[in-house]
Amino acid sequence: MLPGKSQEIILIVTLVVFFFNISWVMSPVKVKESHKKGKKNLQVFILAGQSNMAGNGGVHRQIENGVVTNLSWDGFVPQECKPNPKILRFNAAGKWEKAHEPLNYGIDCLLACGLGPGMAFANEILKKDLEFGVIGLVPCAKGGTPLHKWRRGFSPYDSLIRRAKFAVKDGGNIRALFWYHGESDGKAKNTSSLYKRNLENFIHDLRSDLHAPTLLIFQVIIPYPKEPFVGPYIEEVRAAQLGINISNVIKIDAEGLELGPDGLHLTTPAQVQLGHMFAHAFLRFNNFSFLNRYVLPFNILS
């Protein structure tokens, strides 16, 4: 081989190695090799709905003349929500990374993301079942989105389907979807009166588009809000949620969980409690997996 040609090959190889190393260092995804090898056994959970699923625990609002003028998160992360090597997050860039609060960062918010139920759920699962494996959380919540936007052709729904499919393209199992939604639809009669039908359509379309006809869904029954939040038709929305009769839809009543000063969003302790409720309901369902074609006859508030 000619000397000049040999030097050219060495230069090309050096540049390839250089740019590979640079791209690795600059990448925000730092998933351990053990996680990569275990992708086929990744246990995936989708988190969807409105702002209480996105997470507003610890978010403070400055209100002037009835208008929110400033939002800030206090940054407090309780022990139940601390990072764990066995908990991954599917971030806004479509990459798996070590999960941390705020879990919904980049999906629905940038400056005022708060704490939601996802990390508390995952940590409680791993605490109760040491052999559960690696948990992958896929946040998809969008604050303030009415239910008629969670259908084919609209951004929240299409984004959920796209992210869920992409999350398991290299392996993994979608185990369940956690759904917390309904407050904005409780503001008007027309949205509340259509809520049950729209929710049933959402569930059927979701399972069809994910090719998962028996996908396990944990549906939060929204709590009654307090002042200053105004939701005159919350009772109708709650009735619609309680009236859903579809297999593998588990209802979890959030009534009684602590609400923040705005009368709408769960506090940090309440989000931790909700995460534990999700975990206990999921484990309880698994313990009775032979009944997985039916709706378990219980709601959770413990």
Radius of gyration: 22 Å
Q: Name the overall outline.
A: globular
CATH architectural arrangement? 3-Layer(aba) Sandwich
Q: Would you tell me the structural class of the helices and strands?
A: alpha/beta
The ordered string of helix (H) and strand (E) elements is HHEHEEEEHEHEHHEHEH
How would you characterize the largest beta sheet? Answer: 7 strands, mixed
- Beta-strand residue percentage: 15-25%
What is the overall pLDDT average? 85
The number of E-state strands comes to: 9
Percent helix among the residues? 25-40%
Main sheet: strand order: 5-4-6-1-7-8-9
Number of continuous helical runs: 9
Number of domains: 1
Which spans of ≥5 residues are poorly predicted at pLDDT below 50? 9-37, 290-302
CATH homologous superfamily (4th level) name: SGNH hydrolase
CATH class category label: Alpha Beta
The CATH topology is Rossmann fold
Termini separation (Å)?
A: 75 Å
